Amino acid sequence: MEDLKKLQPKEVWKHFFALSSIPRCSGREEAARRYVENLAKKNNLEYRIDTAGNIAVFKPAYSGLEERPGIILQGHLDMVCEKNEGTVHDFETDSLKLKVSGDWLSADGTTLGADNGIAVALGLAVLENPSLKHGPVQVLFTVQEETGLIGAMQIEASLMQGRYLINLDSEEEGVFYIGCAGAILTEGRIPVSWGKRESGMKAFRLAVSGLKGGHSGADIDKGLGNALRITGRLLWNLYNSFDIRINSIKGGGKHNAIPRECFVSFVLPSEAAGRLDSFVSHWREVISLELENREPGFRLRISEEEELPERTFTAAFTREISRLMYTLPHGVEAMSISMPGLVETSTNFAALSLEDTGEIRILTSQRSNRLSSRDDLAERIKIQINSLGGTVIHTNSYPAWTPEPENPFLKKCTALYREVTGREGIVKAIHAGLECGVLGDKRKGLQMISFGPDLAGVHTPQERISVSSVERLWNYLVKLLSGLTE
């Protein structure tokens, strides 16, 4: 704890640490919003909360700067709640356990919530500091960003007052984002065909784990393993080699996280069980070689269960689900021609599980800066799920943020970055979803930019944030707020 107390700037980290003790998974931001509300009251600042639960706090201009253009600082209150297998942590009640290693701050076995707790902490530090020189400032805290930018989609346009919007939800220091992909969720449900328990069978559990996971937008082009795709490949080969029957399955979780784990229970004929060890050894070696050094923690285990299940999927349904998992698309679909190196279209096979309703639930998300390509990919996935008698809904559709390289606000931000740091800023578009696209669509004429400190492992229990990067970003942000008054 003593190491944490030494972090600079203290006015930023004190709020980050406070947020780390407040449960704030998407859709559960009430306590975090109260923290913001109480700070506004304590500092006699006007604030508004809209019907979606977004909260905006308004700080008057420094004396003499009342006529300067208004500035909106923006981030989201919620976080992705993921933990490692075996980690004891209740995201509804428990504080995150923070630790420092060198320049990096992380949490013990869980996501850190730096995405986007650091934006909230930076915004609160600005609101609390009466000596900062700036025009009218508004800090906008949105909700349910991680479940599809829901707060931004439902925001009241009147809640945004200003000419400039600075989104603090990016993950590379010195990189200025001016565009992002649009996205849509494609969720399917397939009724299970159950069969009776067969005699002469043994029960086993397959576990794929140890993968890095990662952000389904920013990391989709890194060749990371997807636990669901790997499991689908194994199940397809298990079915064809051993005539298995599945009885339970669960893998993945959040739509915007590449799945790290998948667990399947199945039965197979007793006389075939002796061949499982060689099967596992073969596929462990094959997949490890394919993943190379990208996934050093990859683990594949099959263990025998003591009790046989009362029922299993039919042979036909086991085959069809295995085939769907094996063939459902995941990864980069197309690269951008206009912006070399930028992913244009992708899909994330995010989650699959057997529900209490007796259905298989499948969650995927599609991203693209061409909405026609996004929707085409979503429709193809729908056809695959429909072919098994499943139903599909498309939700959480949001627009892309079209880059404007000649935006005068961008030029001002990068010029000041050069002046403050002596380094050139890098201008990019991102394949992840940023709220700028939605907010700009709601409030026409906003000049927008997104930047942030160095983060790594976002949306996974390996999430971490560079401490020194936060300090440099704070110093730059203070200079930028002052510079926008000139």
Word description of this protein:
- The chain contains twelve helices and 23 strands.
- Helix 2 crosses helix 4, helix 6 (227-242) packs antiparallel against helix 8 and helix 10 crosses helix 12 (467-483).
- The longest helix is centred in the last third of the chain and has 17 residues, at 467-483.
- A hairpin with a 2-residue loop joins strand 4 and strand 5 (104-107).
- The protein has helices at 2-5, 10-20, 30-42, 114-128, 150-153, 227-242, 276-291, 315-327, 371-386, 408-421, 435-442, 467-483, and strands at residues 46-49, 55-59, 71-76, 98-101, 104-107, 137-142, 164-167, 175-180, 182-191, 194-196, 201-209, 245-252, 262-269, 299-304, 311-313, 331-335, 343-354, 359-368, 391-398, 426-430, 447-450, 455-456, 464-466.
- The strands form five sheets. Strands 9, 11, 12, 13, 14, 16, 17, 18 and 19 form a nine-stranded antiparallel sheet that branches. A six-stranded mixed sheet has the order 1-2-6-3-7-21, with helices on both faces. It has a four-stranded antiparallel sheet with strand order 4-5-23-22.
- The relative contact order is 0.18.
- The model has no long low-confidence stretch (mean pLDDT 94).
- It has 486 residues and is an alpha+beta fold.
- The radius of gyration is 24 Å and the shape is elongated.
